[in-house]
């Protein structure tokens, strides 16, 4: 049986513990944080300067990027106070000079940095590296900073210290780390309220202000908090700030460190609507599941984009094809592993948990398979992968600059859609109204004046196919209608045949004129035909008679008449209105009939193909 | 137990807020013993009795939905209220337009529970039968001091008494096995504290509120609260 954690914070704490034991993962320990470091100061044992080196990495494009490493956590700076960090800092504090040129302030900063380290000389003094550092700081003159090699690049960046001939940095030695942890607990004297933690049930020191979480799109850039009580109305029982939700100091660090780690890693994070979604499993081998689910959330780049992601894209398309055939679980393996999805959306300086889904990989996979199968629609030969969740949301908004305007996606819709797909629930109704609205406004899929693509991300045929697929999935799941993958001539619902009829009438009009038509009945009557068929179809049938006489090929004329006759055989009378779900069915019928017109006919493909 | 009762409650929405996500509310997966006690006290309570919740039966599958609501960010101060009551001070007002805070809520949908509880007599005559009878009569008739609610007042609860011989309504969670819901809020305990922030106006005593947690383990839809408390409530 899968042990799936129930609470988001609890699952994050377990994830932290798993990462902390994994040597290949770089997650900071309590009292430390990951920071970007650019340069290192190499010292001799007596404290004189040996070298000053650039330790940045070079990325694929040849640019220098700072190295992320675990350093003693200073807790962030705000305001104009002077607050030095321990064994690392920017050059303004560490060397007394930077690129901003405020000499007096830099003098104060350097003095504070030096004094802090000298004050701890007793405690950590038996460490060679720390002793050298203290000696260096005692003798260092900030005026010499400009003479250091590479100073133009280094000014203002973060530096660390290192003893020449030693492997690690000064702050990495055990004795220095211990001294730091002791010093830190003395500094944070205000967090000494004790109480029962709601995460462990044990009595612990409680954290007054939880560490910030950075990386949620559109939240405060310096970070926001999930557990935060920053206005009167949120406080209860006379408790202030985070004492309203008692969490121990250690657990508060662990869950925020885990969350920051996930948000920094693009393999574990996607953006759906306004929410930043992170996802992870509880097994180290579960990364295949993570990859696959990422593909379902967000559009995979098409192969025409980056060449190096070609193989990754191939794998993901492969997974999506396997899903269509119901074989996804074999590819993923590990069905009992727990899988967690946490959707966070910003609200000024707070973070709102938009959804929290926790279940086994097997369950999620089954539901995804069902979703993918429902989205499938003719033509069956199409190689296009089915739309991801972001792709589905794209079909509910207007276009801006050739791409769907993602800022206009309803945040509630994105959260509910993700929940519906991953939990197997009915789709939100606003999905249907959104897609139907787009179809009406654009005549199924918009084309520019010359009939070419209006959107830059997909061609108009692919867009038509996606929208028809979404309608099919909605009708199957929410309205329990049987909608086949391709044309079904014996569909029980009238609305379906009305759509087919419209497609047939439109085709006749196109066939009747040798020249390109400026506007067909589709441009004028598409929306009205689906919403108020009773008003529109009698007129369209009359027009059809005229169009029919102008079709030259007698064979075509006869076949078309037969087709229209067959469709009308399913209709009783034209209803005055169609409710929105039947409008969806109308559009599916229209799409199926259009597809059928453009499908190559051989003797063996004649007949009905039912999914 | 002769002082034990079983009450069936259900409703369209329920929000048993997690303390750590109280601002942007996220509900626990099931009803908390504290909320269950609140429902019982809405139906019948006297200062002589104290309700204790023993077991919770979850009848419907756990489903969440999310909404956003416009609320306010501050509370009226009790000092101003006291002044106004005494006839002085400024006019009491909270200008909603100046104080808007939009808060998101993740609530449970379509919930149904059976609460198994008993009451303890803390004062007065030890006639359990009288209290039990009164509760039963009120629950049967649908009488209450105020409408019972599922976590927050805006989510009203319907209730029905389960008689002694009646069978429990079937739970849709039978066959799911064991599910660990982690540490859940049990209730709030008020501890006498001379410097505490909570003032008992009538008697002048001061209190401090301490949350108590219990280990919630749901087996086939049944949560044994009493055992969860023993399993490790740290006080």
How would you characterize this protein structure?
The complex is a heterodimer of chains A (611) and B (235). Helix content of chain A is 43%, strand content 13%. With 611 residues, chain A is an alpha+beta fold. A 4-stranded mixed sheet of chain A has the order 3-2-8-7. In chain A, a hairpin with a 2-residue loop joins strand 11 and strand 12. The radius of gyration of chain A is 32 Å and the shape is elongated. The two termini of chain A are 34 Å apart. The model of chain A is unreliable at 302-308 and 603-611 (pLDDT under 50). Chain B is of the alpha+beta class and 235 residues long. Chain B is built from 4 helices and 10 strands; from the N terminus they run ββαββαβαβββββα. In chain B, strands 1, 2, 3, 4, 5, 6, 7, 8, 9 and 10 form a 10-stranded mixed sheet that branches. In chain B, strand 9 and strand 10 (222-224) form a beta hairpin. The mean pLDDT of chain B is 87. Chains A and B meet through helix 1, strand 14 and helix 14 of A and strand 4, strand 5, strand 7 and strand 9 of B.
């Amino acid at each position: 049986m899968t042990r799936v954690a129930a609470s988001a914070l609890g699952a994050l704490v377990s994830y932290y513990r798993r990462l902390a034991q994994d040597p290949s993962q770089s997650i900071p320990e309590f009292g430390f944080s990951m920071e970007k470091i650019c340069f290192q100061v190499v010292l001799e044992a007596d404290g004189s300067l040996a070298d000053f080196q650039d330790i940045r990495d070079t990325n694929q494009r040849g640019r220098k990027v700072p190295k992320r490493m675990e350093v003693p956590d200073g807790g962030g700076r705000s305001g104009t106070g002077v607050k030095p960090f321990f064994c690392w800092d920017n050059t303004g504090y560490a060397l007394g000079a930077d690129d901003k040129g405020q000499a007096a302030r830099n003098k104060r900063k350097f003095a504070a940095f030096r004094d802090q380290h000298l004050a701890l000389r007793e405690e950590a003094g038996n460490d060679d590296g720390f002793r050298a550092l203290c000696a260096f700081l005692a003798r260092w003159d900030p005026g010499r900073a400009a003479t250091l090699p590479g100073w133009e690049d280094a000014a203002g960046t973060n530096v660390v210290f290192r003893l020449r001939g030693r492997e690690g940095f000064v702050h990495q030695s055990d004795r220095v780390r211990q001294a730091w942890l002791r010093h830190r607990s003395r500094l944070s004297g205000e967090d000494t309220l004790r109480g029962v933690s709601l995460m462990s049930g044990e009595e612990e020191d409680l954290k007054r202000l939880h560490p910030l979480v950075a990386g949620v799109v559109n939240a405060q850039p310096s970070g926001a908090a999930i557990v935060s009580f920053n206005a009167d109305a949120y406080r209860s029982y006379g408790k202030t700030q985070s004492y309203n939700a008692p969490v121990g100091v250690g657990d508060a660090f662990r869950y925020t460190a885990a969350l920051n780690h996930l948000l920094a890693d693009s393999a574990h994070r996607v953006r759906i609507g306004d929410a930043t979604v992170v996802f992870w499993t509880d097994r180290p081998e579960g990364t295949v599941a993570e990859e696959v689910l990422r593909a379902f959330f967000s559009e995979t780049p098409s192969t025409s984009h980056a060449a190096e992601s070609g193989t990754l894209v191939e794998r993901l398309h492969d997974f999506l094809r396997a899903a269509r055939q119901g074989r996804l679980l074999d590819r993923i393996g590990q069905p009992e592993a727990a899988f967690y999805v946490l959707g966070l959306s910003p609200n000024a300086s707070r973070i709102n948990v938009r959804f929290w889904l926790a279940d086994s990989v097997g369950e999620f996979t089954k539901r995804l398979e069902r979703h993918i199968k429902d989205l499938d629609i003719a033509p069956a030969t199409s190689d296009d992968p089915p739309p991801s969740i972001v792709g589905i949301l794209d079909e509910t908004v207007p276009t801006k600059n050739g791409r769907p305007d993602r800022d206009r996606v309803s945040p509630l819709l994105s959260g509910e859609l993700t929940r519906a797909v991953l939990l197997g629930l009915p789709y939100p109704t606003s999905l249907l109204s959104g897609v139907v609205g787009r179809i009406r406004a654009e005549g199924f899929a918009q084309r520019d004046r010359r009939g070419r693509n209006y959107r830059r991300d997909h061609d108009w045929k692919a867009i038509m196919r996606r929208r028809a697929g979404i309608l099919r999935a909605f009708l199957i799941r929410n309205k329990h209608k049987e909608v086949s993958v391709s044309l079904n001539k014996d569909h029980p619902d009238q609305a379906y045949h009305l759509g087919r009829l419209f497609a047939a009438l439109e085709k006749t009009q196109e066939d009747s004129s040798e020249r390109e038509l400026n506007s067909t009945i589709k441009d004028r009557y598409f929306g009205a035909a689906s919403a108020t068929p009773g008003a529109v179809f009698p007129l369209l049938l009359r027009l059809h008679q005229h169009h029919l006489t102008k079709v030259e090929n007698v064979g075509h004329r006869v076949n078309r008449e037969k087709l229209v006759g067959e469709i009308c055989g399913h209709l009783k009378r034209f209803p005055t209105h169609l409710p929105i779900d039947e409008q969806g069915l109308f559009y599916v019928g229209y799409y199926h009939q259009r597809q059928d017109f453009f499908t190559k006919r051989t003797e063996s493909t004649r007949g009905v193909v039912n999914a | 137990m002769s002082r034990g009762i079983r009450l069936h409650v259900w409703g369209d929405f329920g929000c048993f807020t997690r303390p750590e996500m109280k601002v942007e509310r996220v509900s626990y997966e099931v009803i908390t013993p504290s909320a269950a006690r609140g429902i019982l006290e809405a139906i019948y309570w006297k200062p002589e009795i104290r309700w204790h919740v023993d077991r919770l039966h979850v009848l419907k599958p756990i489903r969440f939905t999310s909404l956003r609501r416009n609320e306010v960010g501050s509370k009226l101060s009790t000092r101003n209220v006291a002044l106004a009551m005494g006839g002085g001070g400024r006019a009491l007002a909270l200008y909603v337009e100046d104080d808007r805070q939009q808060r998101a809520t993740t609530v449970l949908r379509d919930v149904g529970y059976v609460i198994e509880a008993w009451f303890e007599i803390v004062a007065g005559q030890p006639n359990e039968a009288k209290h039990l009878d009164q509760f039963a009569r009120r629950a049967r008739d649908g009488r209450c001091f105020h409408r019972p609610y599922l976590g927050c007042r805006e989510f009203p609860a319907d209730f029905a008494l389960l008689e002694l011989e009646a069978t429990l309504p079937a739970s849709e969670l039978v066959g799911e096995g064991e599910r660990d819901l982690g540490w859940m809020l049990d209730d709030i305990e008020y501890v006498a504290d001379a410097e505490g922030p909570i003032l008992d106006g009538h008697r002048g005593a001061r209190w401090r509120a301490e949350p108590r947690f219990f280990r919630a383990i749901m087996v086939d839809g049944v949560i044994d609260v009493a055992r969860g408390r023993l399993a490790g409530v740290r006080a």
